[in-house]
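Q: Convert this sequence to C-alpha cells.
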Amino acid sequence: MSVDDTDRRILRQLQADPAQPMAELARRANVTEATASRRLDRLRARGILRGQQAVIDWRKLGWEVAVSLRITLDKTDPRAFDDFLAAARTVPEVLEIQTFLGRVDVRLFVIARDMAHYQQIYRERILALPHIVDLEALMHIAEIKHGETLPL
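A:
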C-alpha cells in the first residue's frame, strides 16, 4: 500500500499534533481541508491510519515501577501460546504483550505503583499464568528513546 507525497505531508503533520483542527492540519500540509479530510478517510479505509489515541504518562499517575518480563513457554503443549496469551491479556497491569521466535517466546511490559505492588502482581498474577517454563525480569531504569513518529 503506497502513499504519495501529499499523504506523507498530511501524516507528518498529524503525527506532530494529532489534536490539531482539520483546518490547521490542512494548512500545515499545504492542502485544502477537503483534500486533507478525503485523504485521511482513504488512509483509514486502507488500514494505514488505524486511529488516534490519548497517550497518558502513567508515571505521573503514580505508577513508578516498570518491568519487562521475558518468558519462555512450554512448547510441548500445542495450546501453550493461546492459553498463556489469553490469561496475560486479563492482567490489567500488563500494558504490552509481544511474541517472538527464538528462546524467548513472549515479552510482557508490566507497571506497578511501587515495588511492593509489583511483588504482589508478580506472585498473584504473573506466576499464575499457564505454561511458563522460564521467566526473566528486567527492571526499567530509564527510557532513552521512545519513537512513535515514523520518518515519513
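The mean pLDDT is 94.
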